[in-house]
Amino acid sequence: MNWQATLQTYRDIRLLWIFLMGCSSGFPFVLIGSNFSGWLTDAGISRAQVGLMGSVATVYAVNFMWAPLIDRVRIPVLGSRLGQRRSWILSMQLLMLLLVLAITQVDLSLGLWLPGVIALGIAVCSATQDIAVDAYRIDQFAPQEQKFLPPAAALAIIGWWTGYSLPGYLAFSNADGLGWNQVYVLMAAVLVVLICATLMVGEPKSDRDALQQQAAVRYSRTTGVRAWLLVTFIEPFADFFRKNGVRVALTLMLFIFLFKIGEAFLGRMSIVFYKEVGFSNQQIAEYTKLFGWMITIAFTILGSLFNTRFGVVKGLLIGGVAMAASNLMFAIIAVSGPLEWLLLLTLIVDNFTTAFSTVAFVSFLTALTGRAFSATQYALLASLGNLSRTTLAGFSGFTVDWLGSWERFFVVTALMVLPSLLMLFMVRDRFERLAQEGS
């Protein structure tokens, strides 16, 4: 595919819908991620407790356990009016709205258990919404439309960062003046806008029902509830291993788990680091949210074009090397102090990392996902990456304290990416063959 043909794919209206759903997917991370960390830090909560409170996001690592329900269960009334994917997305958004309104009434001086429970509820709704949003993106394009995978991944990523960065900028730029409780009132208003977007986009056309009926033939000797349970909870995983082979499937899953560990540790402690090193809430808003959003968009489009022309393996290798480099630049900030130009340069490298690696990552996982159980299979793969990002990263605050300095912490996180890059280099030919088979 030449450059002109690649650019033409961006004119498809379905990519706009994917962008809007990406915004909905990224927004909850503001609620339980950067906003929550900023609120806790301003309230004087320790780094270790901030890290542990962030562990509510562990549900993202296990959402594959209930992903089959998003493939097979229809929500009454909404399912017939909005379709399978949008009905699940809207239901989760409405529940999140109620939880966000609840958190506006929280007083941190009374303890952390209530905000922790509410944050966990938001995380569960968000993780469930993510299953439906990813399936929404996959279902939009037929198997023969493989040329749309990198653009769709790019628009999903741009949407995710838009939903994460712009509300995050709104939050941190108003935190000092309004206070965090009122900031969450603003976040509720943002969620209402996202709900309207869900009602506007089109439901993807899919032959999912016919494919699921074909899969059910394997269990024709079993009837009733047991047959439904086998098709719903067993067949999606069995199909993935049959299609890829056990050895390739396990290798892929291990690579997915290892690739994002270093980035996960850094991300969990980033807001705490910015505040401790001396950056203000306004600087965090302008540089990490607003400017970070703009350069992420630019590099994501560039990453999409690169991955389309040269392949996802090269994109992953470049992104992995850049990931280590960006972590080392954070170590330089720890030594140099709150220099705005250095933060700007670091964010450019960091967002370059995110763009190249994530576009390749999402495109490759999508190519491996079957259409009969797209929600379940993609959730299985994505949850492995989330497992390191949410579960292990919960110990990031303890790691900083144990190492004794931010500089050592960022050097260690840079080294964490090396095992996955070595694995990718060793099996790159196999990964490229799998990607070609998917296309």
TrEMBL record:
Compartments reported by the entry: Membrane
Major facilitator superfamily (MFS) profile domain sequence ranges: 14-431
Signal peptide: none
Main localization of the protein described in the UniProt heading: membrane
GO biological process: acetyl-CoA transmembrane transport
Annotated transmembrane regions: 15-36, 48-67, 88-106, 112-136, 148-171, 183-202, 248-270, 290-308, 315-335, 341-366, 378-397, 409-427
GO annotation, cellular component aspect: membrane
Membrane topology: Multi-pass membrane protein
GO terms for MF: acetyl-CoA transmembrane transporter activity
UniProt KW keywords: Membrane, Transmembrane, Transmembrane helix, Transport
Protein name: AmpG permease
Organism this protein belongs to: Aequoribacter fuscus
